Amino acid sequence: MKTLTFLISIILALGAVSCTTSTGAQSVEGTALKSLLEEKNFVFQAQSAQPSRGTTRQLTSGYDLRLSGDTLVAQLPYFGRAFSAPIDMRGGGIEFTTTDYGYTLEAKRNGRWNITIDPKDAKDVRQMSLSVSENGYASLQVLSTNRDPITFNGVVVQRVQRR
């Protein structure tokens, strides 16, 4: 029975990997990744969410943080404690679009980069900190004014140009 459970979990994990790589986005590494981060032209695809209270949750596709020059679009879920309820019941996640934000890129040791994003007109998000490794794996921490912090793990990929 344990062997069957192990085999099923392996098959599900491989299926999840194939689903996340077939989204049409292209993974990047090294100098290509550095240029995407400098140009603010990338997508952070969230694969798991880790609230400050509770357990890590695996996410389905479709949750991301997109930067394209002067525009920042966040479509991320939220799990955790909120200190005030939203007026609109659809407002439970971290969802906003802004063109007014601060962006600081800092190179670290071993090919890592730390990015600090300060949205000026997002109603609940104070700061977003993105830590990116040289092979594109990343961790995004979101600090809110009325919610506990939450961390997302995922990958940074090249933005796909839409026609």
Overview of the molecule:
The structure is a single chain. This protein is 18% helix and 43% strand. The chain has helices at 2-21, 30-39; strands at 26-27, 41-51, 57-58, 64-68, 71-76, 94-98, 101-107, 113-119, 125-132, 137-144, 150-158. The protein is built from two helices and eleven strands. The chain has a single domain (26-158), classed as Lipocalin, CATH 2.40.128.410. Strand 9 and strand 10 form a beta hairpin. It has 163 residues and is α+β, with helices and mostly antiparallel strands.
List its traits:
2 helices; 163 residues; Lipocalin; 11-stranded antiparallel beta sheet; 43% strand; alpha+beta; 11 strands
